[in-house]
């Protein structure tokens, strides 16, 4: 199976990014994690993204806060799918990062999840791999069914308590 690259702009993003790592672990998807910044280590971030396809990656998750140009900078150097996680690390509560990540100019797409939406970033990366991996597609379907069962259980408890 191809790997998922997880890049964060700073180690201060790790508490959020860990949810993506845990999700990939749960699904047995191989990954690499790096701290590469578009502005502090631009050459290294460029090098990683330029070589990501030949190095066996299927998609790249890029997490960054503030004026978060990391996902876009990575996407500029690869035709692999890039998933951006805007991180809430600023006085603007992550809205700055959301807009910097989601508002990519036409031609260089970044699939942007919610502010701090690391779990969805990992699930979207998994769904990209699952296009050609039936076993993984079944695992993802099974997680959806578990989520449905869990909501129905909570609903039953609430209905029992309030509906007479
Ligand atoms: C961004 O600036 C990082 O992604 C992080 O969210 C934010 C703050 O970085 P630190 O000052 O904590 O290293 O580049």
Offer a concise description of the structure:
The chain has 164 residues and is α/β, with parallel strands linked by helices. Helix content is 48%, strand content 17%.
CATH topology of the largest domain: Rossmann fold
How do the strands line up in the largest sheet? 2-1-3-4-5
> How much helix is in the residues?
40-55%
Q: In terms of quaternary structure, what is this?
A: single chain
DSSP helical segment count: 6
What structural class should be given to the helix and strand makeup? alpha/beta
How many beta-strand runs? 5
Enumerate the spans where pLDDT stays under 50 for 5 or more consecutive residues. Answer: none
CATH architecture of the largest domain: 3-Layer(aba) Sandwich
Strand content: 15-25%
Q: What would you note in describing this structure?
A:
With 164 residues, this protein is α/β, with parallel strands linked by helices. It has 2 domains: 3-132, 3-Layer(aba) Sandwich (Rossmann fold); 134-164. 48% of the residues lie in helices and 17% in strands. Strands 2-1-3-4-5 form a 5-stranded parallel sheet. α4 links the parallel β4 and β5 (111-112). Bound molecules: 5-O-phosphono-beta-D-ribofuranose (RP5). Residues 9-10, 12-13, 37, 64-66, 87, 89 line the site of 5-O-phosphono-beta-D-ribofuranose (RP5).
């Amino acid at each position: 199976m191809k790997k998922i690259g997880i890049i964060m702009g700073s180690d201060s993003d790790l508490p959020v990014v860990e949810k993506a790592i845990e999700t990939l672990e749960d699904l047995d998807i191989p990954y690499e994690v790096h701290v590469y910044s578009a502005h502090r280590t631009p050459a290294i971030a460029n090098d990683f993204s330029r070589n990501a396809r030949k190095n066996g990656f299927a998609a790249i998750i890029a997490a960054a806060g503030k004026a978060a140009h990391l996902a876009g900078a990575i996407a500029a150097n690869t035709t692999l799918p890039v998933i951006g996680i805007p991180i809430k690390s600023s006085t603007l509560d992550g809205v700055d990062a959301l807009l910097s990540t989601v508002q990519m100019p036409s031609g260089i797409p970044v699939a942007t999840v919610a502010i701090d939406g690391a779990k969805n970033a990992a699930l979207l990366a998994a769904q990209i791999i699952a296009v050609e991996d039936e076993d993984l597609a079944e695992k993802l379907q099974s997680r959806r069914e578990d989520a449905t069962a869990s909501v129905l259980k909570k609903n039953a408890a609430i209905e029992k308590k309030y509906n007479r």
